[in-house]
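Hi W.,

Here's what went into the run:
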Amino acid sequence: MLPITILRALTAALLGASATLAPAAAPLGFDDARHLLSRTVFAPPPAQIEAFARLTRAQAVERLLDGASTPRVTPAPAWVNEPVTTPQALRNMTREERQLWNRRNVARVLEMRGWWLQEMVATPTPFTEKMVLFWHNHFVSSQQKVRQSQYLYRQNLLFREHALGNFGALLHAIARDPAMVIYLDSASNRKGQPNENFAREVMELFTLGEGHYGERDVKEAARAFTGLGVDPEKGEFLFRPQVHDDGVKTVLGRSGNFDGKAVLDILLEQPQTAEFIVGKLWREFVSPDVNAANAAEVKRIAAVFRDSRYDVRAALRAMLMSDAFYAPQNRATLVKSPVDLVAGTLRQFQFAATDVAPFALVVGRLGQNLFAPPNVRGWPGGEAWINSSTLLARKQFLDRLFVSEAGRAPPAMAAMVTTMAANAPAPAPEMTPGAAMNQRLQRAFGQLYFETDRWMSLAGSDVAQVQRQVLAMAPRHALPPDASGIEMVRRLTQDPVYQLK
Amino acid sequence: MNRRDFLNSVGGITVLATLPAGVLAQTQTAGANYAKTLILIELKGGNDGLNTVIPYADAQYAALRPRIAIARDQVLQLDAAAGLHPALAPLMASWQAGELAVVRGVGYPRPNLSHFRSIEIWDTASRSNEFLQEGWLTRAFAQNPVPREFAADAVVVGSPELGPFAGKGTRTISLTNTEQFLQQSRLAVPAQLSHNASLNHILRVEHDIVQAAQGLVSQHSFQTAFPQTGFGNAVRAAAQVAASRSGVAALKVSLNGFDTHSNQLGAHAGLLRILAEGLVALKAALVELGRWDSTLVVTYAEFGRRARENNSSGTDHGTASSHFVLGGQVKGGLYGPAPALDQLDGYGNLPFALDFRDIYATVLESWWGVDSQTPLRGKFAPLDILKT
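Here's what came out:
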C-alpha cells in the first residue's frame, strides 16, 4: 500500500514538473493523453490514447477542437419533420385519442434518447456530443413540459450547430427556440401580464448567476421579453408585436425601449457572464469546484473567452491547454455522469454492439434521462450522481457487461441473432413504450460482445498497463495475482475508482 | 469535517473509546429519538382526496361529480358530514381503535399542478417558487444525525427516486426487497478513504451499502400475511426493514396509479383497496414486532384532484387533499376543516387549510423531538395529533 502511494506521488510530481517545464513542445505521453481524452470523449479506447500520446499538448487540443464540426452519423428518427400537433387539434381529441397521443410522445422521447446515445457511441467526434450535452444541461428544456419531441430534436440540432461556436449567438438563438419558449413560459409573457420565468432564468442560470442582478432587473427584463411565442400551426418561433411591451425598461443600470435581443446584449456585456460560463465549463472539464486555488485561472480563461467575443473554442482551448487542467490534484477528481459511464464504457472497450439505443434506458435508470433534466437547473452532477441505488445499478450494469465469455455469443453469432431479432415478433400492442424498450434492452445486452483478447492485446502487456488503461488512478482494491482476461477487466471496472474520470 | 468523516477517517468504532465523553454523548443522542420510525407512503400521481375522504353531506359534492360521486349510503361514515370511500373498509378497525388521523385540506400556497414540480416541492419542502436540491429529511438528518449504529438513515422501497432523502449526506438505501438488496450488495466492498473528495463520496456510499447489508439482516419470520400485490410486497419489505437487526429512522413506500384522468371509479376503488389492505398488513406486522407504538405512518402525494369531474368520468390535477396518519401513538380523528367546495378558485380548485409542512413539523418536533424550523426553512405549526 505505502510504496505504491509513494511511487504515485513521485510519478505525479515528475509529471507535474515535466508539464511545467515544456508543456507545448513535448509529446503528451500516455497519462496526459488519457486524462485529456477521458474528460473530452467520454472514455478513450487504447488506440486513441496511443495516437494522442504522440501529439504535443497544442496538437492534441487542436485535433479535438477541429473534429468538432463533423456531421452526425446516426440517422434521425423518422418523425422529426412531422408537423407538431396544434393546441386546437389537441383540444378536439377524444380522451382515447389523447391517450394515444400521450403514449406516442413517450415512445418518441424514448426513441430520441436512443438516437442520441447511439450517436455518442458511434460518432468519430465525441467531443461535440459532450458539448451538446453540456448545452442541454445549461439551457435546460424538458420533454415533461414541452411534450412534443420534434421541438426537443430541433433544440438538439441548435446545440449541435453552436456546440463549439459562439455563446452569444447560441444565447440569442435559444431565446427564440420553440422548446425553450414553451419550457420557460415565454409564450405567456405578455404586455401587462408579464411571466418572469425566462427573464429570471436567463440571468440566474444562463448568464450571470445568482447574486449578480436584482428583482427589479428580472421584472424589467420580463417586459422586454414580452411578445415571444410559437406559431401554433407551424410550430416555429413567432414574434407577436401586439403583446410586446414597448415602453422604457431599466436593466442592470441601462435604460431604453429594450426588446429581448437588447437585454441579451446587455447580459453579454457583463464580465460576470464570461466568468459564470467558464466556471461551469471548469466544473464540467477540470475539477468539481471553483475555489481559491483555481479562481485566478478561471478569471484568466474568462478574459480569453470575453476577448474572443464568446468563442467557445477559445475558452476550451485555453482550458485544455492550461497547466491547471493537467495538474496532479485535478486528476481523477470528476465523477462520471451516467452518459460518461455507459457511452464511455462501450467506447473504451470497443464493444461490438448491434443495438446501442436501448442502453439509453440504463442511462435513465442511473439518473440521467436525456431530454428530461429534473428541473430548470439541470442535473446537479458530481457527487450527486452517486447514491446507494445508482452506485449498485452502475456496478450491476458493469458486472453484466463483463461476465465471463462463457454463454456469450461471438460476433458472427451476434449478427445471426440480430437477423433473428429483426424477425422477432413486434412487441405486443398492449405493451407500454417503456416495457417495449426494456424488452429491446434485454435483447441488446445479449448481443453485446467484448472482444477480450483483442482489446487486452491493444491495452498492454502487463497488469499495470491494463490498470492505467482502465482507471484514472490506482485502484482501491489490489487485483488478485491470478486475475487475467475478462475477469481482470471486470474487477477493475468494479473498483470505485472506475466511477471517476 | 462532519462526524461521519471523522469516524471514517479514524477507522470507526474502535476509536470511539478515545473520544472525550462529552463529544460522545452529544453525537450519539443529538436530541432526536430515531428509535421511533417514520414510514412515508407516497400516493403517486395525485390522489383524489374528495373521493377518499368524502364530504357526503355537502350537496355540492354530488353536484360537482354527477358521474363519480360515491353514493351517500356507501360511504363509511366518520361523522355526520365526512366518510371514507367504501374500498377503505379495512381501515375502519384502526379508525374505531382511535389510531387513524384523517387530515383534510393539506396543500400549500400558489400550488403547482405539474406532477414533477409539485412532488419536488413536497419532497424538498420548498416554497412554490424556489428550487432546492435537498429533501426535507436530508436537511433534518444533517441537523440531527441518525446514529451510526442504525443500518442506514432511510430506506426507499421500490423506487430509484430518493424523494425526501435526496441530496448530499444522507445514508439512504433504495431496495425492492431486502433479500435482493442483500444479494446485490455483494458488489459493494469497503475500502479505506483517500485524499480525493469525489472518491471518498463513492467510498462512503459503498460503505453505507455494506453497513446496511449487515444491519438489514433479519431472522424474523412473519406470521402476518401480506397482500399479493406490488404494494403488499413493498409493505412486506418495509416490515422486514423494521424487523432487521439495526433498523432505520425513516422509510418511504410508494403506490402508483393515482393519476385518474378517466373512468376513475373502478380504478380508484381498486387503488384504495390495495392501499387499505397494505396498511392493515403493515399494522399487523408492526404489532407482531411490538413496533406499532413506535412507528408513525404518513401518506402524501403531489396534489389532490379537481373538485369537478371532467368529461371522461375522471378528475384532473388539483390542489389540496386529505391524508392519513396512523400509528399506535396517534390520536385518531378528523383534523382540518371540511373541504370548502363553495370557495373554489378560478380553476375550480380547493383552497388549502393546512400546509403540508405542518405535517412535517409534526414529524420532526412531536415525533422525533427535533427542531423543525431549520430543515423546513420556516416556522410551521405541528398538529396536535399524537398522544403525549
